[in-house]
Design goal:
23 helices; Alkaline Phosphatase, subunit A; five-stranded antiparallel beta sheet; alpha/beta; 2 domains; binds manganese (II) ion; binds (2R)-2,3-dihydroxypropyl phosphate; eight-stranded mixed beta sheet
Length: about 625
């Protein structure tokens, strides 16, 4: 035995044993999805790099301490891994700092805690036992004492770790900025580095929160009062009082596909018809940034801006909020989100509680198999079909949000599911896109039929909106072929338009509304339709059915759109013609747009709703009182 470990530093042997165990846990307990060779390499490299990095820290101590700390490192590391294993068995998720403070989660585990333990669990500590036994026989002379040996250990472990991060970035660009999903993070940087990253994220947002004292809110309230609050009630105020609200977040749906054809076939035949029979906002913009779908959810439910980096759903999931589901729960509404993806994606499982949702029907609520999955998971058609039973079981009135998935990049669809030809351009993405958009159109059509058949349709209003763009700037050449015009910075802003369709069954006096609007406006519009009036709240949206407010749509990158102008990349354009105007025309609104973004950021980073109590009342109540 002594001969085997004779010359090798003890920390390195321990690191290797620990790495092998970690790899096996990743592979067989966390069951991380491996989609390609690079992911395979990362998953094998990461435990080695990370273990070596942490265990090699002991070389800076005296040899006897090195041995002692190596043992401790193995024990602590094993417990961290084991806690994650137990947590994962219950939540299919990884521990975050806020979770450690969420005692209610521990409550959830309750009596089932014992059932989470398995007879294989002692095996998860086998390396610790081996390390303890070996540590008694290790020769202290073989431990690094010279500076050179110490530096060699440090350089090697850091190099491996950097290699791991570089590969992870290649595999998932912007992994850290977007912080998509804990599973991706763990898959790419391992569970230990993920914990460090999570602690850093947490400390940063906590620090900003600690600095805030709430004095800013008055000024922000005054601003939003003056600029966004209508003086006159809209014509549709209370039109949907006590009705169900069904929101459909249409993945990657952009306005440019509506009323367009490919080889003589409409891309969105159902939506084109629906538009005729609904309020359709033809100049409605998404306002999302890196948080993509989650940003759109944030904007729609809170009427605040997303952040310029990261996703609020991750960075500020513990904030106090004033979100639609929570507000309307006071008026008898139950709320739910339906989305057949992993519930930790975009930290939804945590964030939906924060926003006040009562239920979240995630992947677990659906029967998902190879036959009914395409691309990111369950097909939209199967998703809507399987959702109906849950919707029927919900207590009325409800606020139910459906998030579709099939029309997601890279927009792959098996040939037999394609009802229209692919587009023909140099962009495979755009070529595919039209086919998946059409698939989603058919899925929504089928959902409408099922809503009617199940009797849910009559008592509901149905609001469909695109969550964000699907075709990025990288496809400008193909887009300019599709649109028959050059994609200038002005056109690029115009391409951020996504459809907004407000469908009120039985209501015939509908129209296409061309005034400019954005996702930010949905919260006040919905509340107003439900007959709920704001007494005081801070948000940046306006009721879209009022006419006495000059519309202003600010995009997260500082571009903005008014009835007259489009401002982007330091240039001012006429909104109708796209002609460039003098910057002076845009200047005053530019500073207003900047302050809105700043105000919204301080509300989020400072968690200012802690210091502010919002107030609502029923529209009729106020009338009665007057
Ligand atoms: C995933 C879905 C898509 O659950 O919301 O996310 P995206 O990449 O569009 O943000
Ligand atoms: Mn999306």
């Amino acid at each position: 035995m002594n001969r085997i470990i004779g010359k090798t530093p003890f920390y390195a042997i321990a690191a290797m044993l620990f790495a092998v165990k970690t790899y096996l846990v990743y592979r067989f307990i966390f069951d991380l999805d491996i989609e390609n060779g690079l992911q395979e390499i990362i998953l094998a490299l990461n435990p080695i790099a990370t273990s070596l990095f942490f265990f090699s820290l002991v070389v800076w101590f005296k040899p006897e301490k090195q041995v002692k700390y190596t043992r401790r490192m193995a024990l602590i590391g094993s417990f961290i891994l084991y806690f994650n294993v137990v947590y994962f068995r219950f939540f299919s998720d990884f521990i975050t700092v806020p979770v450690l403070f969420q005692t209610s989660n521990v409550g959830d585990l309750g009596s089932s805690f014992l059932s989470l333990l398995s007879i294989i669990d002692p095996l998860l500590f086998i390396d610790v036992v081996i390390i303890y036994v070996l540590s008694k026989r290790v020769s202290l002379d073989a431990q690094p004492v010279l500076k050179r040996a110490k530096f060699r250990a440090a350089v090697l472990s850091i190099a491996l770790l950097v290699g791991n991060v570089v590969l992870a970035e290649m595999e998932r660009p912007m992994l850290f900025v977007r912080t998509f999903d804990r599973e991706y993070l763990v898959k790419n940087i391992g569970v230990f580095n993920y914990h460090l990253y999570d602690i850093a994220l947490h400390s940063k947002s906590k620090a900003q929160r600690v600095m805030a004292d709430g004095s800013e809110v008055k000024e922000i309230e005054q601003y939003t009062e003056e600029n966004n609050k209508s003086k006159q009630p809209s014509d549709l105020q209370g039109i949907a009082k006590d009705k169900n609200v069904i929101l459909i977040s249409a993945e990657s749906l952009q306005t440019f596909v509506l009323n367009e054809e490919v080889n003589g076939k409409e891309i969105t035949p159902f939506l084109n018809d629906l538009v005729e029979d609904s309020f359709y906002f033809s100049n409605f913009y998404h306002q999302t940034e890196q948080g993509k779908t989650s940003d759109s959810e944030w904007i729609v439910d809170t009427s605040l801006y997303p952040l310029s980096r990261g996703a609020v759903f991750f960075t500020n999931s513990e904030n106090e909020t004033s979100a639609t589901p929570e507000i309307i729960s006071d008026y008898g509404y139950t709320s739910a989100v339906f989305h057949a993806n992993n519930k930790s994606f975009w930290n939804r499982s945590v964030m939906y509680d924060t926003l006040g949702y009562d239920h979240f029907y995630s992947e677990e609520a659906y029967d998902v198999n190879d036959e009914n999955s395409i691309g990111w998971g369950l097909t939209d058609k199967a998703f809507f079909k399987q959702s109906i039973k849950y919707l029927e079981a919900m207590e009325d009135p409800y606020y139910a949000k459906f998030i579709t998935l099939t029309n997601h990049h890279p927009f792959n669809l098996p040939e037999e599911e394609q009802s229209i030809d692919k587009y023909d351009s140099n962009s495979k993405t755009l070529n595919n896109y039209v086919t998946t958009v059409r698939y989603m159109d058919e899925a929504i059509e089928q959902f409408f039929e099922d809503l009617k058949a199940s009797g849910e349709y009559e008592d509901s209003i149905i609001i469909i909106y695109g969550d964000h763009y699907g075709i990025s700037e990288n496809h400008n050449k193909a887009m300019s072929q599709f649109l028959g015009k050059e994609i200038t910075p002005y056109e690029h802003v115009q391409l951020q338009r996504v459809p907004l369709i407000v469908h009120i069954p039985g209501y015939e006096d509908t129209s296409t509304i061309t005034k400019v609007s954005g996702q930010m406006d949905l919260k006040p519009t919905i509340l107003s339709m439900l007959g709920i009036e704001t007494i005081h709240d801070v948000d940046f949206g306006t009721d879209l059915f009022t006419n006495d407010i000059e519309p202003l749509v600010v995009l997260r990158n500082g571009s903005f759109i008014t009835q007259d102008v489009v401002y982007t990349a330091d240039k001012c354009y006429d909104r109708e013609t796209g002609e460039e105007l003098d910057m002076e025309t845009c200047e005053p609104t530019k500073s207003q747009a900047q302050s809105e973004l700043r105000y919204s950021d301080s509300l989020i980073y400072g968690d200012l709703f802690r210091f502010y109590s919002t107030g609502y009342q029923e529209f009729e109540e106020k009338n009665k009182a007057n």
